[in-house]
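Lab notebook, page 48
Experiment: co-folding of the full assembly
Goal: obtain a model of how the components sit together before planning crosslinking
Operator: M.T.
Materials (sequences as entered):
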Amino acid sequence: MLSRTAQIRLVSSHPEVYDPCDDSFALVDALLADRANLLEHRPSICMEVGCGSGYVITSLALMLGKGNSGCYFIATDINPHAVGVTHKTMEAHGCHADLVTTDIASGLEKRLAGSVDVMVVNPPYVPTPEYEVGQFGIASAWAGGENGRSVIDKILPVADNLLSDKGWLYLVTLTANNPSEICLQMMKKGYASRIVLQRSTEEESLHIIKLWRNLDTQLEVC
Amino acid sequence: MRLLTHNMLSSNIKGVTNGFPLLIEVEKVVEKQVDFNEDFLRNMFPKIEWKALVEASRTMGYTELPENAESSMLDSDEFLRKFHHALIELHLEEGALVCPETGRKFPVNKGIPNMLLHEDEV
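Observation: model returned without errors.
Model output:
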């Protein structure tokens, strides 16, 4: 039976790249739970920001049907090693995504504006001192600055720019990131949201948020 | 890197106003066969900057694309196949993307472009 998610034994690794962990599995579980909706959604462009080992983008490509040449998969990471590992992981599963080594979506923002139908992000969400944010290498996978929000707060406006009218964003957060405040902020930009999965491990409490444009009721900001 | 991605990339250097399209320096081109999907091509067509695609495909050694294109041409199977080939099946494996304004080169290795900027370019 064709696996609907990436297989750990086929996921490539590198000392400077974040291996799939509880947060990666939670995001993929959330996507799997939403699979029927995703298929019905018929996305043309799916994008992952921060692809790491490639576990999530590979799983997304598999669950939408890897033979499905009806969708363009693109993934970015600020860590060149991560992009290399994602490439190997995708190949090992017979999938393809176009990969770009860049900071969030820098270089893609102008042309991809309003075009991404599904965006998935497992950001560096761990609260750390500010100086740890944006360092190259494996720390870029978790260092999130104050309340773990530094990179998330950079990503949200980029997502708002890139998402199509029907675009969906799946975002991994910790309780410490204040997910309800994120939802409120996005609501003011006209997004509806739902916590689609919650999972508590020994170390952290994860909330996977799904966001989409609420085209019926755009709130006016006074 | 497919030409679809090239069509979506522009120079991200601070102060650059004319950053699209990036010029292509070819070292190695690979052709990878992919199943044809008409719906996908129809969805993508309005987003594509046609001239940039034609120029890029010529740089990669493919000269079959017409100079101009309009959506009525999507009804032609022949056109669709050429569009598909240029957009999806041609890969720049090794080479560089060049900012048209500053000449700055963004390397492409193993099909992956590196758009990371130096501190003074951000």
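Interpretation: Chain B has one domain: 3-111.
Next step: discuss with group before ordering constructs.
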